[in-house]
Amino acid sequence: MATDIQNRTDIQRLVDTFYQRIRQHPELGHVFDTVAQVNWETHLPKMYNFWENTLFGARTYKGNPMQPHLELHQRFPLSEALFEQWLTLFKRTVDDLFAGPIAERAKARAEAIANMMVQRLYSHSPFNFTE
C-alpha cells in the first residue's frame, strides 16, 4: 500500500518520476527538452525546493515560477491542452507513488498552479481539469 508524501526524499522521488515521464511524453517532452531546453541539473533541485516549500512550508524555494513560463509562451504558445496534459501526468504520478492527505494537497496545488498559469497566459477565467 502506498504511503503519503512525508519528506524531501519523497518529493525528490515524485519530481524525478514526474519529469522522467514528462521527457517521454510525445508533446510535453518536446516542450521541455527542445523548446525550453531545460537544464535538468539545475531545474530538478529548483523543483524539489518548490514542492518542499509548497507542501511543507520549508522556504527552500526562491524565485518567480511564472516568469519563465511567460517568456517561453512568447516563443512557443503553451496551449491549455499542454497544461491539461501536464496536470493529468502529475496527478497520475502522485497516485502511482503516494496516497494520503499530503498527496491530495499536491494534486490540488498542481491544479491551482495550472489554472493560475492559464489565467495569466490567456487572461480568462480558470477551468477545472478533470481526468
What would you say this structure looks like, in words?
The chain is an all-alpha fold and 131 residues long. The protein has one domain (8-122): Globins (Globin-like, Orthogonal Bundle). 70% of the residues lie in helices and 0% in strands. The protein has helices spanning 8-24, 28-35, 40-56, 66-75, 80-97, 101-122. It is globular, with a radius of gyration of 14 Å. The two termini are 23 Å apart. The model has no long low-confidence stretch (mean pLDDT 91).
Topology:
Layout: H1 8-24, H2 28-35, H3 40-56, H4 66-75, H5 80-97, H6 101-122
What distinguishing features does this structure have?
mainly alpha; 6 helices; Globin-like; 131 residues
Describe, in short, the structure shown:
The chain has helices at 8-24, 28-35, 40-56, 66-75, 80-97, 101-122. By secondary structure, it is an all-alpha fold.
